[in-house]
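Justification of resources, computational component.

The compute hours requested in this renewal are based largely on the per-chain cost of generating structure records like the one below. Each record pairs the submitted sequence with a full structure-token output. That output is archived, and it is also reused by downstream analysis tasks.
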Amino acid sequence: MMRIVIKVGTSTLAHASGKLNIRRVEELCKVISDLKNAGHEIVLVSSGAIGMGVGKLNLGARPSDMPTKQAAAAVGQCELMYTYDKLFSEYGHIVAQILVTGDDIANRERRGHFINTMDRLIGLGALPVVNENDTVATAEIAVGDNDTLAAIVASSIGAGLLILLSDIDGLYSADPKKDKNAQLISVVENIDDDIRALAGGAGSSLGTGGMATKLRAAELCAQSGVDMIIANGAQPEILYDIIKGEGRYTLFKGKK
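The structure output for this chain reads:
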């Protein structure tokens, strides 16, 4: 039995249009519910508020100005939590929304309140769903990306494992989209300059992440002794394989 933080990116949750990928999200909630039934303590860090807001408002593309981003987040976060509440309720699980900014993490007292709330929710059997508070966050107080936020959450609440579900199987020896000989790296014991050099650019057009943010998250986790995995979220059933130590993904070892 493990305390696990699972982070899902916009590319996992939504189609390129920004509209919800219904089949995938339904399967994700089913698998997570099953893992909770097995006794694991699960925290979900979910991107997608801005992306889903873009789709619902028919904006066509992710906005570049802050007011429109925040407006899209306000609309999309409602849709996101409605979806999670509906789907997890079907399997008998209660969700709780937690929205944070960089200030909430940086301030010692507020971070303590955050940790206490998370521990209590988990103790009560609820499933915390964490996201950055994009509606009020600005450049000065933003965490910046949910890979980093997920690493902070995992480190703060004493998780044993952080799983980043993305649109790629893990870290490759080269860009698999450009190099057919690229090899998946199954285990990373230490993140050095050679590993950092493998990080590419940004992720999907609707998201903010990329391999660089995932490597930064892995470094944060390593410092706290938390193992971290990058896996492809296209088939949420991969979470079962991860629990069994099977499947295709990259494992970053935490420093014990």
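The beta strands are 3-8, 41-46, 95-100, 127-132, 161-166, 187-188, 227-232, 250-252. The two ends are 19 Å apart (CA to CA).
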